[in-house]
Amino acid sequence: MAGHGFYLKSQASCIGVAILFCTSLVISSFAELERLEHPVKGDGSLSFLVVGDWGRRGFYNQSHVAFQMGKIGEKLDIDFVVSTGDNFYDNGLTGLNDQAFEESFTKIYTATSLQKQWYSVLGNHDYRGDVAAQVHPALRKVDSRWLCLRSFILNTEIAGLFFVDTTPFVIDYFTDMDHTYDWRGVTPRKAYLDSLIKDLESALSESTARWKIVVGHHAIKSAGYHGDTKELNDLLLPMLKAYNVDMYVNGHDHCLEHISSLDSPIQYLTSGAGSKAWRGDLNQNYKEDDLKFFYDGQGFMAVQLTNNDAEITFYNAFGKILHEWKALKELHSAV
Questions:
Q1: What is the pLDDT of residues 151-194, one digit of tens each?
Q2: Which among 97, 132, 133, 193 has the fewest CB atoms less than 10 Å away?
Q3: What's the short name of a Pfam family annotated to this entry (predicted)?
Q4: Of 329 and 319, the one with more pLDDT
Q5: Could you count the other beta carbons within 10 Å of the beta carbon of residue 323?
Q6: Is residue 223 pLDDT above 90, yes or no?
Q7: Active-site choice (4, 226, 258, 332)
Q8: Is there a catalytic annotation at residue 226?
Q9: Is 161 helix (H, G, I), strand (E, B) or coil?
Q10: How far apart are CA 25 and CA 34, in angstroms?
Q11: Cβ distance 24 to 9 under 8 Å?
Q12: Integer Cα distance of 81 and 96 in angstroms
């Protein structure tokens, strides 16, 4: 495949362990990244919720957000849930038997509508714990909804979701003397990123999905506390533009926000308000014509897709609609 050269250098990466449960693993011709499939509804539509930065044993309004997710999930008849990372605070899981898994996940998201598959990426706080435990298949015996991998692809009939492990991109974590990170399987960093970027480029270039959605923990564009992630702007954004990605979905900033790209169809969507939120952290330097929405409280996001239409809705912890955005695929236009 003739690539655009967005990876640092070509590197081989290990084939992931095959996973087979309520979704099925598809063996891909380019598959260093694991590929999963999830069916759409009978009418060809797809709907899912997105929540991030949530795992606090129900505190900081996590339980309130979970309750409203259950109500909206039932209303929309969601197909699955996406987690944008920082799944367990403050320092990830200590191991496979860490009670935080059930106390922050199983016992919190109890609504019938949320008993669907959860597709999760890791956040920087997850990397402060036992990463191998959080991505281990044994957790699915505790709660079959749980699927967390470093990077993977989820194919549906109308959308491709590309989950990216963004924490190793951020160089500052490797020099952070205040916290300990679990870099097993990541170091040497350059080889890890080379392989990941190469595999992601292959997947995006070969995808025939009507909608392309990339999911990571860290923001590419954000008006929140952490702001833009330089490494993602340098290494991922050119690729996303080249392969006509429609949405980049992230957490990390504890807010809800929508930023529209001024030079591409990409919509930057932050859903990192699953529990503790940061009040008053709006970056005033963002222009009004690209920052469509910002909310510094708790909440979550819903995505509804058909072959030609997309609808994004942000909700607060009381289930109130805060912001809606709709697009027609043919025209790349929004209202």
A1: 999 999 999 999 999 999 999 999 999 999 999 999 999 999 99
A2: 97
A3: Metallophos
A4: 319
A5: 17
A6: yes
A7: 226
A8: yes
A9: strand
A10: 7
A11: no
A12: 22
